[in-house]
Amino acid sequence: MGWASASYIFDPVAQALIDSGATDELKTRVLADLIRTLKDGDWDTEHESLDQFAGDAAIVEAFRQHGVVIQCDADTDDSSCELETGHAGDHRDWQGKTWRQEDNPVREHAEVLQPHDVRLPGTRQWQVHCPRCAEPSIDRGTINEDGTLSQGGDHEAVTVHPDRDNYDGPIETRGGYVEVALYCGAGHAFQLIVANHKGAEYVAVVS
User: Fold this and answer.
1) For residues 101 and 99, what is the distance between their CA atoms, to the nearest angstrom?
2) Inter-axis angle of helices 24-40 and 7-19, to 10 degrees?
3) Once rounded to an integer, what is the mean pLDDT over residues 27-36?
4) What is the rounded average pLDDT for all residues in the chain?
5) Is residue 88 exposed (0-12), middle (13-18) or buried (19+ Cβ within 10 Å)?
6) Sequence ranges of the domains in the chain
7) Sorting pLDDT into bands at 50, 70 and 90, what band is 1?
8) What pLDDT does residue 35 have?
9) Considering only Cβ atoms within 10 Å of each terminal Cβ, which end of the chain, N or C, has fewer?
10) Is residue 151 predicted with pLDDT exceeding 70?
11) Cα(48)–Cα(5) distance, rounded to whole angstroms?
12) Coil, strand or helix: which one is 6?
């Protein structure tokens, strides 16, 4: 029988590290050691704790070091993919059954722009998730053709495109637009677009 109550040990420690402002390196190192110890004790609800802290890339990495990942969960028939979300190649379930994934799939609206409940007067916020895999850990930057990461800061990641007459923008609008280059923790690059077209303002993600 598994050790479900181990989450009551892991979760407070993880939250305490976050609240204390611990560096990503420290969080990963401390929590990876704790995960190893708890798994040695037959912890079997680790995915519940991973889900709780899925927005923290350092904690996700600590779990990843012990084979616990945010699963893809793509479905076919009665099977569900157990590989890490954003994986390359075919899907695979726990029995080894494989099936092809769609070319460049895009998640539904509600998975990509999720309401963020921050109670500031006069504001409404949404958190952007990866349009390919719904990964919540997002940073600004671009992925180069050789797979390396280019982190040039906001002056490279954010581009303001002026008004133009052609419908050649990323979402086929005619007016000017703002483009923010983003990438997720699984390595998918995409753009956040804010554009105006004929008196209407649009927000889009383009992968």
Assistant:
1) 7
2) 170
3) 95
4) 83
5) exposed
6) 4-64, 73-101, 109-206
7) very low
8) 95
9) N
10) no
11) 11
12) helix
